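forwarding from the other thread:

> can someone predict this with magnesium ion?

sure thing
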Amino acid sequence: MTLVKDLKVNKEHQINLEQSLQEACQDKEFVSLVQSLKLNKKEAMTKTSKLQLVLEERKHCKSCKGFYMCKNECIGHVLEPTILEEKLYFSYKPCSYQRKVLEAQNKKKVVRMKDIDTKDKKQMSIIKWMDDFYEEYDGSKYKKGLYLHGSFGSGKTYLLTALFNELERSKKATIKIAYFPELLRTLKEDFHRFGYLMDELMHVDLLLIDDIGAEKVTEWGRDEILGTILQFRMNEGKITFFTSNLTIEELEEHLSLASGVDKVKARRIIERIKQLTIDKELISENRRD
Ligand code: ADP
Ligand code: MG
């Protein structure tokens, strides 16, 4: 009985979808959207309402004068379809107003080595180490990065960012500074950027994993993400830096979660970090506003 009922429901569902598609096709813009994406009938049928939403959001944007009158589901963004390997995906792209905001952010002053003030004597040995690193860097030799740990606001991120920017501008290195807790969130939520981001994290010349230990540990974040990136970078001899408020021993504890298996997995990550870096400490006054 249930099977017959299920089949009947399925059939009704199918008819509803067909009807919705037929109705949507009254709209010329809908038809040309489907044509431009080269969708077949089945795809168009299962995605009718989403495609209609794309057109509606585009229409909103046409008459929009700024964020205050944004009518789209995700403010400052517009739903866009894309075809990737013959499959249809939808993602939110920044609108023209949002793009201006992003451009302005990108133009914000880039910290370089010359901007670093040297009034904090506790930073001196790190700055000296960075100077040597900068001089010796030529893009061909493998070098160890730093595992720079210490107190909150002591300048860890600031100093390493200056070094990275300098290497990017003056020595044409490709760099990536990834705030670790945020990175995990993005990888988890933004399916469309996952592949691109992982590729970048594995391949850039210099990677800074900023604030490791501040994230909420999950097996996925530790083994699938961090483990994969570090293993790749170790094998390929890619330069990797870390900042953390935790010492390497504290980080091991943090990554250990609960069970015995996790202890082994945490150990494995710590071994990779030790292979990739030199351990340095920076404990100083908090300079954050
Ligand atoms: P941490 O990453 O260690 O928590 P930050 O790198 O964020 O700390 O440093 C806090 C702030 O201190 C930075 O935003 C920066 O403005 C300032 N700062 C730290 N060191 C220097 C320095 N040598 N020259 C100029 N500003 C610095
Ligand atoms: Mg920091």
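Residues 116-117, 120, 123, 152-158, 243, 287-288 surround adenosine-5'-diphosphate (ligand 1) (CB under 6 Å). thats all i got for now
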